[in-house]
Write a structure and sequence with these properties.
Chain lengths: ~230, ~600
Amino acid sequence: MSLVLVYLAGLGAVSGRWLARQHLAAKPWLSAGPLLSRPAAGGSESAARLGLGAFLAVVGLLFALLVAAYGMRVPPGSAGLPLDPRLLWLTTGFLGLASLLLHRAERAAHRGADEDARANLLAAAAASLVFLGGQGLAWRLIWEAGAGRTVDAAGSFFVLITLLHGLHLAGGLAALARIACGAARTGSPAGLVRSIGLCTLYWDALLVIWLVAFGILFRTPWSGLIDVLCRPPA
Amino acid sequence: MVDTPIGAAGPLPGSEPDEAELYHPHSWLTRYVFSQDAKVIAIQYSGTALAIGLVALVLSWLIRLQLGFPGLFPFLGPAEYYQIITMHGMIMVVYLLTAVFLGGFGNYLIPLMIGARDMVFPYVNMLSYWIYLLAVLVLVASFFAPGGPTGAGWTLYPPQAILSGTPGQEWGIVLMLASLILFIIGFTMGGVNYVVTVLQARAPGMTLMRMPLTIWGIFTATVLALLAFPALFVGAVMMLLDRLLGTSFFMPMIIEAGQRLHYGGGTPILFQHLFWFFGHPEVYIVALPAFGIVSDLISTHARKNIFGYRMMVWAIIAIGGLSFVVWAHHMYVSGMNPYFGFFFATTTLIIAVPTAIKVYNWVLTLWRGDIHLTVPMLFAIAFIVTFLNGGLTGLFLGNVVVDVPLSDTLFVVAHFHMVMGVAPILVIFGGIYHWYPKVTGRMLDERLGLLHFWVTFLGAYLIFFPMHYLGLLGVPRRYFETTGLGFIPASAASLNAFISVVAFVVGAAQVVFVANLIRSLRHGVPAGGNPWHATTLEWQTPDTPPRHGNWGARLPVVYRWPYDYSVPGAAEDFVPQNQPAHAAGAAS
């Protein structure tokens, strides 16, 4: 559970830094009247961003728990998965591309370049669908090879993690479709910059989560670091 | 939010309603059923939770029938007994207590107490309730499924939870896990809402350190729940896959009835870690809102400012943080590295420090206060005593050497029920008696309330004090039948019968409460806007019950903290939070 505790410590540090600026040492019984609290600039925009941030913190913890469970359950000498990792490198590339395209869509929407923003949104959605298709194919290959129910459980974790990650991305795609429809209806995505920005944040987070999951399920350059955090001490 | 001096603030921001963001219902259906108004959602949450809680109450009667009078009731066999204790525990902890405190009190009180018009995401808030209702219905469906509900015990430990010897192995466990997954999805929607609303939608002047402790408790408990429930979610999904797809996340190699099952390599201990990583914070998910509500009740009904407000806030935050590093004290008997046992025993003792600070502060708030022994106040005082009792036995059990012999006895059941069952339920009752006048505009009948309080309070002690003694005698928990066991004296059976009789009486007393709730809707004394002369914002609404949007044309402005009671020189013995200094006379 070290990874989970590190994750929680990170959240605690962010929260603690924020709390430190909230005058928690104030003596409110002495301060009738003089202090007014006002919302930070942005109003509902910052509420939406904060809401998404809180949700992503929960999602991040969910996957941290899964990775920690992997470390406790799958033996270090696991035979690995009967799957060519190049397929997953390819799907990872598409997820990264989707994230990149959303950043471009956000910038285009900021500039007011409607057509450009819309094209980037659609391309990001297409890249995400390709990612999901690739993950589905890998899922099927693993399951058909019988690796989903092996004693070392690496395949079971692959099935579970990709399933949950894919469901989260599918939810994001539904939101993206709603934004695209909104853009089509209003004729300009510029008014929806906020929504595109939220999608961008969501996709970035799902990309990071996938990279961590990928790092523990297959040998990658960053697998060693994740192993240190999620394997119990010998 | 940033705090600025009033002179630099200019015109007060946000004091006009933002029509674009306030949802308005257009039909009876969207006003009362698929409502996006947090107050209606709160009542829906509370009604559903109390209804399923009554089911759990009836289940507890059945448990007591068996324990008090074993063998007398042929419809209670071992399988039924285990199914009943499982459903009783899970319903009470998750579907009643969590839902009432966060879904019920949270939805009703957060917008009103911080001076907001509603939750910031009303549609998501509505979805949260309907998913919760679906979770409850799925759980209830397991009573009618082939094989009945699961009998795995409320901790659902694998491997036995999904093996064929356990009642409800076919459908019951699947429905239980599905229900928990739904509950967590629904709660996450609501929880994100509560957090963002507290952080973003406070009225002008409502700094964090001017929030009532009820809001601090609910807010911190929500953060805890958002971070604890994912562990249960992961455990439930993994066990569901073990059960349905034949994976072996938790299932070791098992030979059942002479046949080797296809499972192998799984670690049941992994589930225990996941379960208790949720399970211990769950204690505080229930306790922190209770702490907050009790603080407000005793301050209001003792007409005295809360003692050590800052320390109370810090203690809530400290308890929230520490609650994530004590989970393994539930697993001493599962076997662990002795150093881990030492670590978790130490953290368990440390968490008693901020908790004790709260108890001292409550007592010092009462000290020389103008105590009004109203029904809510009685429940609040009863909570302090009960939580103290339950907490002290928790210190025993937090130590490895004491826990090991007591772990599987009724001592644990008694401790747990005092601290996690009786104590928070006393607060729920106190909170309902306190805020019912705001919700309905009428007072609850006081005589019926007193009857309800004394029977419940004294009865709970008559049930659970002797149960500690039974535990010390070595009477095991979870056993269907203990007669004939040589190490248990015959007197234990008499005591068990006595406890059962009292439990029936206490259970029946809850009918008085429900009758009072219903009767007072029409026949209660009109309450007016602020019957308790309280300072917090929910009592200052222009209408009682508050209308949609809560505040009429203008949002309130907050000028002071929520505990200005008996202020020297003030015109009355309380100064509402939204009253400017010049209007309060010489106040503060």
